[in-house]
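Students often ask why inverse folding is considered easier than folding. One informal answer: many sequences map to the same fold, so there is more than one right answer. In these notes we will look at a single instance of the problem. The structure comes first.
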């Protein structure tokens, strides 16, 4: 039995009729346009690995070289290195300051509760809603899915490299409002993914970068309000995304995808953003 009929693998209208070899369609291929966004994202990820075989040892991503935070301010991507802390006393002081800030965010939990729970596992719909991206913007959905997939891969690699403890591990009295993810804290996966999605949208249509970054920041902050990330985790995700987009740009399939997404977005939405 298959599909609720007794005719295994045969459309009901064809049931009982003899099969004809002439009905085989040799000329048909699976169209490139028919790939679902989540599976197309795997193609972009494969291209990212192929074009950047040494990304795991990239000087910026590993914290061996500076990255520009803003004009005139550079830093290195290492947990709680903003102040150049090298001794345990300074690191403890930095962590205490951040844990204190997180506890003071408690009043925001009720205001953001719905968002936080809605963004637990998937948040691309928030970009779609804000930018009015509809199902017919198929390549835009692919672009966002691809950025999300690459960002997750990068974030998980460096989570493993640093093994940085979650806030409630360094301060057990802090009670997160959501289940604590079963992987290390730095960088924030949500932040890295959201910011790379924003960077990808901005790479396709420049005027979309600013509003998309505002939403990415909100998504990252929600994880801080929930008590599962430090601001440092969010900032690291932002800076990683800022660098990873430069590694993605120039790759053949990613460039083609950006162009197709740009056609969809420019035609419909670019005039809405000053």
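Output (designed amino acids):
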């Amino acid at each position: 039995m298959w599909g609720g009929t007794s005719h295994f693998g045969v459309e009901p209208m064809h049931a009982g009729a003899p099969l004809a070899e002439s009905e085989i369609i040799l000329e048909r291929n699976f169209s490139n346009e028919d790939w679902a966004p989540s599976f197309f994202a795997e193609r972009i990820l494969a291209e990212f690995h192929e074009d950047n075989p040494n990304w795991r040892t990239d000087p910026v991503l590993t914290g061996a070289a500076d990255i520009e935070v803003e004009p005139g301010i550079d830093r290195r991507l290492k947990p709680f290195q903003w102040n150049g802390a090298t001794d345990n006393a300074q690191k403890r002081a930095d962590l205490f300051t951040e844990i204190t800030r997180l506890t003071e965010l408690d009043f925001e939990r009720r205001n953001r509760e719905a968002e936080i729970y809605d963004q637990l596992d998937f948040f691309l719909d928030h970009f779609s809603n804000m930018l009015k991206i509809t199902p017919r913007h198929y390549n835009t959905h692919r672009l966002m899915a691809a950025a999300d997939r690459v960002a997750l891969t990068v974030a998980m690699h460096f989570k493993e490299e640093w093994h940085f403890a979650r806030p409630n591990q360094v301060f057990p009295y802090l009670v997160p409002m959501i289940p604590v993810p079963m992987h290390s804290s730095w960088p924030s996966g949500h932040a890295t993914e959201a910011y790379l999605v924003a960077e990808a949208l901005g790479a396709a249509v420049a005027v979309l970068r600013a509003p998309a970054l505002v939403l990415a920041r909100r998504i990252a902050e929600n994880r801080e309000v929930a008590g599962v990330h430090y601001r440092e985790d969010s900032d690291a995700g932002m800076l990683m995304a800022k660098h990873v987009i430069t590694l993605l740009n120039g790759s053949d399939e990613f460039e083609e995808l950006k162009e197709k997404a740009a056609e969809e977005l420019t035609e419909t939405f670019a005039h809405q953003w000053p």
